[in-house]
Amino acid sequence: ASSLLSRHRTFKVLMIGDSGVGKTCLTHRLCAGQFPCRAEATIGVDFRERTVEIDGEKIKLQLWDTAGQERFRKSMVQHYYRNVHAVLFIYDVTCPECRQNSLGQDIPRFLVGNKSDLRVPTRADHQVNQQTAISFAKSHGMMFFETSAKIPPNRLSKIEDIVLTVAGKL
Ligand code: GDP
Ligand code: MG
């Protein structure tokens, strides 16, 4: 009977970002998957799930890994964005030309710089400055993380921090 009482809410979380920034790998990683992820490009949309416990409540995160939305009809894109509870905007820290997206002003949003393992101190000018990203996130009401889908989950990768913070905001 106690299992009937335990609540189990599911939340849809969108992974958004340019092709190649690591959305698919990070989605696998956040759902306790392995790196490298399967090599094939994501077709359309795919989701993976991860359950976490927050204050004794089990919360299921449904991470929607999107790809090539720009090639789909508008109605299809709107379908992805329907009933979304949070958005993770992923960019590649080694690629300063990130595009912006104003999606989801009224739900928790997170700015996530991926591929931190590729940071080279001597090539700082070719990378996205972390302070700049933090300021950008702050001024847009987003929470900020820098991570790597490639290194094993640990304190540096912040993978568990991301999962728990997202779940805690839902
Ligand atoms: P997506 O198009 O945004 O889904 O990007 P993918 O997840 O397919 O990753 C694109 C490429 O970046 C692949 O070659 C991955 O192996 C690589 N990649 C993804 N995340 C990381 C990371 O954190 N560090 C490094 N070094 N490579 C990564
Ligand atoms: Mg992908």
List the helices and strands and how they pair.
Layout: H1 2-5, E1 8-16, H2 23-30, E2 45-54, E3 57-66, H3 74-81, E4 86-92, E5 109-114, H4 130-139, E6 143-146, H5 159-168
Parallel strand pairs: 1-3, 1-4, 4-5, 5-6
Antiparallel strand pairs: 2-3
The structure holds guanosine-5'-diphosphate and magnesium ion.
Can you characterise this structure?
The chain has five helices and six strands. The chain is α/β, with parallel strands linked by helices. It has a six-stranded mixed sheet with strand order 2-3-1-4-5-6, sandwiched between helices. Strand 2 (45-54) and strand 3 (57-66) form a beta hairpin. The longest helix has 10 residues, at 130-139. The protein is globular, with a radius of gyration of 16 Å. It starts with a helix and ends with a helix. Bound molecules: guanosine-5'-diphosphate and magnesium ion (MG). Guanosine-5'-diphosphate binds at residues 17, 19-25, 36-37, 42, 67, 114-115, 117-118, 148-150.
